[in-house]
Structures are given as C-alpha cells and as structure tokens.
Amino acid sequence: MARVYISAVMDIPLEEAWGVLRDFNALPVYHPFFSKSEIEDGKPSDQVGCVRNFFTHEGGHIREELLTLSDREHVCAYRILEATLPVQNYVAEMRLKPITEGNKCFGEWWAEYDVAEADAVSVHQTVSDTFRFAFEGAVKVANSRRKA
User: Fold this and answer.
1) What is the pLDDT of residues 80-121, one digit of tens each?
2) Which of 12, 53, 93, 143 has the most CB atoms lying inside 10 A of its own CB?
3) What gap in Å lies between CA 113 and CA 30, rounded to an integer?
C-alpha cells in the first residue's frame, strides 16, 4: 500500500482555511485541477456519506464518498469510489491545526492506496500536487474573501 503525505503552513487563520476546505463540493473554487463538481442526490456537502462527482480540466473523473467531517477537530476523510486515476482502496484525510504564533494554520493531508508499480510514480506526483495545490488555493480564496 502506498502512502502520500503533504503538510503546509498557511499564512491564514485556521477558521479561514477551514471555511474554504470543509466544503466537500468546492474543489473547483480553490483548486486549479478541477473544472466542476456536484454532490449526488441533492445531499448537503457536509453530510457524512454524501458523494461528490467531479471532473478535471483534462476530462478525468472521480467519485468520492465523505467518511468524516468534524468542525470541532477540523478534519475530513473520504474515499474514492471510482476514478480515472489508476488507484484502488484509496482513503484520504485532511486535518488543520492552529499555529498561535502569527495566527497561521498547519495543514496535513495524506492518502493511502494501492497502485500498480508501473503507475506509481505518476500517481504519487498527482496526489502530492493535488494536496499541495489545495492548500495553496485555500490561502488564495481566503485572502480574496477578506478583501471583498
């Protein structure tokens, strides 16, 4: 089983970062890889068990189920149900923690999955970039909301 882990210090308060990242349907708002997303069956995007159906700009398709969402602990976990990304048994978790000095936020995002050896390098890079760009995008969105 492969594991990818990314962490980041975000120069925004935890509440602002969480305000962006907690929305399970908002990937296209803060992430440059994704073009559209919808929650299936009209369920709320913060309801455990909801399924997001989303697409990359290049035509990739992923369906993921929300497993955990905690506003108290600032954590969410999800699993891939189906994807054009060649992975199996994919489970991921994102967690935010406050950094009190400077009113910043620490984010960590990990995923574990099975992947064929031939696809491993490219999949690991894609997953790493996905998490890194999500943290960067959350900062941009939070800063733009503050200026609005």
Assistant:
1) 999 999 999 999 999 999 998 898 999 999 999 999 999 999
2) 12
3) 24
- Residue appearing with tokens 């967690």: 95
For the chain, the distance separating the N- and C-terminal CA atoms, rounded to the nearest angstrom, is: 44
Burial of 94 (0-12, 13-18, 19+ CB in 10 A): buried
Q: What is the DSSP letter of 140?
A: H
Looking at 1-148, list the stretches that DSSP marks H as alpha helix, in order from N- to C-terminal side.
Answer: 14-21, 27-30, 120-147
Residue numbers of the domain that contains 128: 2-147
Q: Is the pTM for the entire model greater than 0.90?
A: yes
Give me the residue label for tokens 């908002």: 26
CATH code for position 80 = 3.30.530.20
Cα-to-chain-centroid distance, residue 42: 20
**DSSP state string for 50-75:** -EEEEEETTS-EEEEEEEEEETTTTE
The number of domains in the chain is 1
